[in-house]
Design brief:
Strand order of the largest sheet of chain A: 2-1-3-4-5
Helix content of chain A: 25-40%
Oligomer: heterodimer
Helix content of chain B: 55-70%
Shape of chain A: elongated
Low-confidence stretches of chain B: none
Distance between the termini of chain A: 71 Å
Distance between the termini of chain B: 49 Å
Radius of gyration of chain B: 38 Å
Strand content of chain B: 5-15%
Radius of gyration of chain A: 21 Å
Amino acid sequence: MEKFKVVIVEDEVPARNLIKHFLEKHPHFEVVAECADGLEGARQINRHDPHLVFLDIRMPRVDGFEMLELFEGEKKMPLIIFTTAYDEFAIKAFEYNTLDYLLKPIASGRFDRALEKALSQLREGVNSQEAIKIFLEKRDNSPEFLKRIVVRTGSGLRVIPEEDLYCLEAQDDYVLISTGKEEFLKKKTLTFYEDNLDPVHFLRVHRSFIVRMDAIRKIEPYSKDAYIAILKNDRRVSVSKAGYSLLKKHLDF
Amino acid sequence: MRNFLLADRRIISFYLVLFGLFTILHFLVMYIQGGFETVIILVDALVSQVLLFMILLSLWYVIRFSGAHSATSLRQFSGSFFALLFLVLIWVFASRKLLESLFAVNEAYKAFLGDTMIIRAVFGLGMGIIVHFFFYNYHLIRVTREVVKREHQLKNLVQQTELQALKNQLNPHFIYNSLNTISSLTTIAPEKAREMIIRLSDFLRYALKQDAMQLTTLKNEIASIKLYLEIEAVRFGEKLYPEFNIQNEDLAQELPVMILQPLFENAIKHGVQESEQPVNIFFKTFRKDKNLVLSLTNTFDPRYTRFKGEGIGLENIRNRLRLIYGNGNLLQIRAEEKKKTKRIMAA
């Protein structure tokens, strides 16, 4: 019999056990890994390449959304069933075909229906990559500002707290994220960060740049209508005329 | 409204003494001037002063209802002054008519009454001013006393409410999460679910019942913390290793109820949950200059945990300690490398 691989990413022990217990009734599925947070979840998904992932949203360290972001740009993605105790507006507003969600406490009837749907989709060979991409874009409307950014590095993952960000630079399909000391590439749009970073601290000063206002050391004229902001780590950031007047307004000079 | 004179014996006796003096003064002035029999002078003084005594009583209501709340209110003061003038005029005419009718045959006295009207009016006004001053100040004292009392009550009420609100901030997510856990357990391990419900209800009984000012013993606090940790341990499994090092003689020490739980909640949230490795929580008590110090330390992973001031839970503890002990500096938080310590000094 064909077996589909399942990874459970869920921080609470009893909830993990409950999902495993419910899965016993479904012989087509087999749990290959269970993880308590998004960081471990990302590792296990990379390692096992599962068909289906149960993903808790609020988790320590790397949450469900951040974990999915790490896979942006992947060609093939597993089906995702979100599990959450909260009425996450993002999910509710976006009940997408290849994404599903279960509200905790999870009722067995609802669980079975979600699994049947997943099973038929897996047999059709559905790829949820597109749905996840749209889902993450929709999530941009979230009313909360980003507190951290999770990036992939050569050896693993890095969590960059919002306070450590100095500037972000658009580079084709990627954004170059700079802290005072290091730089990371992430597949995102600069507009996403413009919308989701706290505007009290961050300002889009140029088509290609978002800068943290605290990180600016000085601003110098560059040409007739352009300026250069020099950050505390001596990094130079282009500032357009419009960006300059925004800075002027925010920094009150 | 009750007449204040009946309500306050000291005031009525003071008022009576005042008018006794006025009457004697009235009598002496007329006696020294001479020209009339002692009986007439006595009747004149008594009738005039008793009448003035009664008429001026109504000044109290004028002052009272003009709503004077501060001595600086000139408009209110002048308003009651005009009332005073009016009352004195009434008195001058009424006392003249009354005395005239009493001594209708004594033409000399009647003439005297007519001649002294202006002097009497001035005299009456002078006394009226004294009475007005007296009433006015008495009224102000009453109002001020009332205001002070009300302020005091209000302050007490605010403090009570504040304390209540602070204490009630047992994180609702905790209850919600526990119920979710119980729901999972009912399917996979019903026996554990039952245990969990008992623990949760024991803990909630302790956490919700008590009033915020109440002190409890360290022993009770520790017992409730252990319940709390057991509940959280079911959720997070093997990652939680609490260690307690409490001196036996400290167990009877009193401290505010539910003051420790937010510290442990914080330790779990930032220590245990955000960490890959099992996290240790050390709780110990010791004495420093006779004061009891409660110290809670948790390890944490600096890669994922940041110090962004105090969360609402710790802020609450600080405020409660301030309200109960009058010292806002009883909670100390210190972060060392991979270790975070919170200390409470209990008086």
